């Protein structure tokens, strides 16, 4: 998960992919806390940069 942490630092919740209970808790959390979900979506929209697209565009210039 190191590359994801490097690129998506602060944008995602890091959950052990082998822990179904942790996944269930996080899904339940966001399904109950609509404000938190909306806030997380807003942060992602503001801060996410498509690094692949950015690198392709800069390579073509």
Task: Tell me what the structure shows.
With 61 residues, the protein is mainly α. 69% of the residues lie in helices and 0% in strands. It has four helices and no strands. It has helices at 2-7, 20-32, 34-47, 51-59. The longest helix has 14 residues, at 34-47. The chain is elongated. The N and C termini lie far apart (31 Å).
Q: Topology of this protein?
A:
Layout: H1 2-7, H2 20-32, H3 34-47, H4 51-59
Unreliable residue stretches: none
Number of helices, where a helix is a run of at least 4 consecutive DSSP H or I residues: 4
Distance between the termini: 31 Å
Q: The biggest beta sheet, please?
A: none
Helix share, percent? 55-70%
Structural class: mainly alpha
Percentage beta strand: under 5%
Mean pLDDT: 82
Order of helices and strands: HHHH
Number of strands: 0
Shape assignment: elongated
Radius of gyration: 15 Å
